[in-house]
Design brief:
By secondary structure, the chain is an all-alpha fold. It is built from 14 helices and 2 strands; from the N terminus they run ααααβααβαααααααα. Helix 2 crosses helix 14, helix 8 packs antiparallel against helix 9 and helix 13 runs antiparallel to helix 14.
Length: 353
């Protein structure tokens, strides 16, 4: 706890403005129900993101007179073409950005850290398995993937099950070819670093944004689907950071001492390598939060992101295209996206220093 508090103090000294923006954004997202009206609950703003004020429809400016009963019912940031309150949409859009930004990064971090640490720790020669154990994973992976493709309807058109199937086939062919080189039953080295390294290079070579847009266009729009798509498509950079940090920590003296006393490999990974690699990995995670927010805003702007019933900063920018004279519909969500992404990038820069 003391180390985390020290990091927070250093962040506050280096970039107080960015830390304040992120803190305010988190508070607004967590307490959006109290700030904006939802399900008839008392709130500071008497409107929700879907409330339509017919008396002030047609994109009413925040600077012009409004047809309201009192100042409490005034639209302080104006309304859109349908009469929805822009301020309420900003509040609920911050919650969408929070959910997508953080939970997609959690998925990316889990995949990237696991693969990167395994590749850096075991390398190409430290992991030895028998033929039976080596073929067990592809044999389980292929039937499970076939089940996802042909039985589960939502994943029948997805890229992930097909990618898992291809990965399982490639692993099986690679392991069969390797074990056929030797007729005896001795254990063989598994080039784990080589396999994971090629996976990282493949993800870097693919146009990730194009893949995300394509998947979002064919999968039912929802926050859950956007989180999963961004999470499973944006782990390569985290895996590269995790691998490099593992290779650096693996050469330290205290890790050699842990090996000498007979500590298990799993304990070394969890107790020594992961805690010491997290500060550096925090830089990549902060950058990925900003990238996930931008990707979600891009998808919503193109109309292939979350559902129409959910408020999003990107969908607000898309709405602004229909009313080019209504500057407030584009300016306020644009400033919100810029402020949050700028703050996350500044915090990442401060962590790297």
């Amino acid at each position: 706890m003391g180390r985390q508090m020290a990091i927070l103090k250093l962040l506050w000294r280096s970039c107080p403005f960015s830390v304040t923006i992120v803190a305010v954004w988190l508070l607004i997202s967590c307490f959006s129900v109290i700030i904006a009206n939802e399900n008839g609950l008392p709130a500071l703003i008497p409107y929700s993101s879907t409330t339509i004020d017919f008396a002030n429809s047609g994109a009413v400016s925040p600077l012009e007179p409004q047809d309201v009963e009192s100042a409490y019912y005034r639209h302080w940031l104006g309304t859109d073409e349908l009469g929805r309150d822009v301020f309420a949409q900003l509040i609920y859009g911050s919650r969408t950005a929070l959910l997508v930004g953080f939970f997609s990064v959690l998925i990316s971090a889990f995949i990237g850290i696991c693969l990167g640490m395994l590749a850096g720790f075991f390398g190409d020669h430290a992991l030895k398995v028998s033929k039976t154990n080596a073929l067990f994973v592809p044999l389980v992976l292929i039937p499970f993937t076939l089940y996802l493709i042909f039985v589960v309807p939502w994943s029948a058109i997805g890229f992930t099950p097909i990618g898992l199937l291809l990965l399982g086939l490639v692993l099986m062919i690679f392991l069969l070819a390797k074990f056929e080189q030797s007729k005896n039953r001795e254990k063989k080295n598994v080039a784990l670093d080589l396999i994971i390294g090629r996976m990282i290079e493949t993800m870097d070579a693919l146009p990730v944004l194009f893949i995300i847009i394509s998947l979002s266009a064919i999968i039912r729009p929802s926050i859950f689907s956007v989180i999963c798509i961004i999470g499973i498509s944006n782990w390569a950079q985290i895996a590269r950071y995790a691998r490099s940090e593992t290779l650096k920590i693996k050469q330290t003296a205290y890790l050699e001492s842990a090996r000498a006393i007979g500590m298990r490999k799993r304990a070394i990974l969890m107790r020594h390598i992961l805690p010491n690699a997290l500060p550096t990995l925090g830089v990549a995670l902060a950058f990925n939060v900003a990238a996930a927010i931008l990707i979600e805003a891009t998808l919503s702007f193109l109309g292939v992101g979350i559902g129409v019933e959910e408020a999003s900063w990107g969908s607000m920018l898309a709405e602004a295209r229909r009313s080019p004279f209504a500057w407030w519909i584009a300016v306020f969500p644009g400033l919100a996206i810029f402020a949050v992404v700028f703050a996350c990038n500044q915090i990442a820069e401060a962590l790297s220093d």
